[in-house]
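Hi P.,

Sorry for the delay on this. The queue was packed all week, but I finally got your sequence through. Input first:
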Amino acid sequence: MRLVLPIGPMYWDTFLYIDAAQRIAVGQMPSVDFAAPVGPLGYYLFAWGLKLFPAAQPLLLAQWSLLVVIAPLMAVVVAEVSKTSRGLAFALLIPALAFAAFPANAQFYHPLPGVDGFGIYNRQGVILLYVLTCGLLFLPDGRRLALFCAVAGLALFTIKITGFLVGGLLGVVALLSGRLSVRTALLAAVAFAVPLAALELATGMVSAYIRDILQLAALNEGTFLPRFRTVVSAKFDVIVPAVALAVLLAWLDLRHRDRSVRLLDSSTVWFCAAMAGGVIYETQNTGSQEFIFIWPVLLMIYRRVAPLQKRTRVIFVALAAFCTIPTASAIGAKTLRAIAVMPLYEQPDLSRLRNVGQVSARHDILARAEMLDDHFASFEPAYEDLARHEQMPGWQYYAEPDNQLQWLLSANRMLAALETFETSNNIRLDSVMTLDFTDPFPWILNRTPTRHVQIGRDPSRTVGEMTPETRQAIEATAGVLKPNCPYTWARRDLQATYAQALQGRKVIALTPCWDLLLRPDLQAQ
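Then the structure:
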């Protein structure tokens, strides 16, 4: 089924998975042969899924491929919980499936309906934290819990290391609270470490991955405090009632403390740990389904609150609703709006882009995107002036669907021109690379991607100085594609980073918005 989705903010982030799939297909390994901002699991699941479903919509495939991990883990939890309460089992399962399926973040970046193409691995990390929290709270201590934690920990580590650290925080709380025995924790640690050790010995991927993360942290070391402020301000609607709920829980724990419950297994400790973990996770992410893993904690707490007087239960339920409904309603509403407009939106002709072109847009957005190439090419000095001031063409340029669609339309025209160039000159570029943030063209053209080049090339956050290995790999690349529309400081800085490796290439103007930088030994008519 060739599903078509309404294009939304930063849709081109999805192409990182397309890029990774082609690299994996030609034998490259994440972190070993190319730097990546996150772990390898999501890329491998996408690459395998693309073989199974060659006509898949890439955003949905990237979003849903993690169900291979999530579904078995949730099945273990549901099977255990349903022995005593089917209602509780469904209350845990239904949100897990919804959050895993919905391609939407809690934050709004554009008022028009559309899917969120960015933050996919952030959503994957937070749903894994949801699953891990369910296991820690509702599975009995023992070997099954040890294996559950090991699998969830491996998935978190190889998806998003920030999620693994937050999962570690929750694991420590479970250990100190007595829900996780020392013996079970040691078994989980061994079951977690052995596969990683085997992977490291066979490929060197684990140490390379850690090295990538440390380098990325060094490039972004000054962003933690501003991002902390962003989380607090963006999620004010959740954090304020959460503070009130924490005060209520502390009062209930003091007044109605159950002597059979350990102090560190109190409702206050679990809720505060989950909220703290949510804040920590979101400081390292842009776009996510924030704080969804407090839901299993709230269900656990409700079972303790249920025997208390009605007024207490009502206050707890009201505050819990304020903590959860804003996030759930935003994610659900965005997804349902996108589904509702699908029959009404138009699909442009993007036939040369394969799966990447399975998007649609409102007719006026499509009309605007169609004319942007000519506009950008005709008024290039204006955009050069913006770049000199370190400004983008728009305040939320990458979030605007017309600009995302313009990139696709422009790329489709470029590919037609590239095919004509190769045919008329009897040349086939066996390897290609793009001087832009995202690079789906090796996969679209079925060519070899350039090794030792970062996936998701953001000169302000992810790209460091060019290494000798990177320079050598770029120099060996047959054709380098250079986008010109619009001129931005990000493209300018990226081209400057790789400038030495691009010296001596012949510049072929494929379209007014795209140049081909041809390797010197390849002759064009």
